[in-house]
């Protein structure tokens, strides 16, 4: 009799917990889906996914999704426009390496790979890096054309959703090089 009494008392107590667990699962998958949609809409693939030749020209190579500038494409010097040329910025076919007044920047590996991607990043670092424009949230400025100043205007929840989604994509080992410094133009003496 006492045992039955306990069962009756416990059942309603467990119900909210069970609902909370299912509810949590649903909101976690909603967060991942939100992140996926934001990554698509914010054009992260334009720069962070290299391209392969397609019938209409270069197209995203989704087998390398968001893994950044391919390590095998070596860039050792900036693009140097002809004197007086209106073209000042250069990029590779994959749109992953960019040369301009800031030097040469290489799109980062955003996959969860431990050593070459966002593996060691925390959610807090990711949000702070995109909010402040500081490399890994603390050091040098993040270089163009990474449009962090626009992404900084997204809500913290949106940035977190992007990070959580990026945690779910296939990890790709691809070591992206450090940026190259700008060419120092030495004024010629008359
Ligand atoms: C127009 C090209 C472009 C687009 C679009 C772009 N990125 Fe980037 N991103 C870059 C480049 C180039 C770098 C390397 C910058 C550097 O080394 O300072 C970079 C670097 C990063 C970094 C590393 C920052 C750090 O601390 O060094 C993260 C994280 C990042 N991008 C996330 C994203 C996300 C998420 C999106 C989409 C919401 C996105 N990027 C869209 C070009 C782009």
Rg over C-alpha atoms, rounded to the nearest angstrom:
23 Å
Q: Mind summarizing the main beta sheet?
A: 3 strands, antiparallel
Structural class: alpha+beta
Strands of the widest sheet, in order across it, are 3-4-5
Strand content: 5-15%
Low-pLDDT residue spans: 15-22
Mean pLDDT: 89
- What is the rounded distance between the termini? 106 Å
Bound molecules: heme C
DSSP strand tally: 5
Helicity, in percent?
25-40%
**Shape by Cα distribution:** globular
Q: What is the number of independent domains?
A: 1
Give the secondary structure arrangement, pairings included.
Layout: H1 2-41, H2 44-48, E1 51-54, E2 57-60, E3 90-91, E4 97-100, E5 103-106, H3 123-132, H4 148-151, H5 156-166
Helix pairs in contact: 1-5, 3-5
The protein binds heme C.
Keywords:
190 residues; alpha+beta; 3-stranded antiparallel beta sheet; two-stranded antiparallel sheet; 5 strands; 37% helix; globular; binds heme C
Account of the protein in words:
With 190 residues, the chain is an alpha+beta fold. It is globular and about 65 Å long. It has one domain (2-166). The strands form two sheets. A three-stranded antiparallel sheet has the order 3-4-5, with no helix packed on it. Helix 1 packs across helix 5 and helix 3 (123-132) crosses helix 5 (156-166). The longest helix has 40 residues, at 2-41. The chain is 37% helix and 9% strand. Residues 39, 42-44, 46-48, 98, 105-108, 110, 129, 135-136, 142-143, 145-147, 151, 162, 179 line the site of heme C.
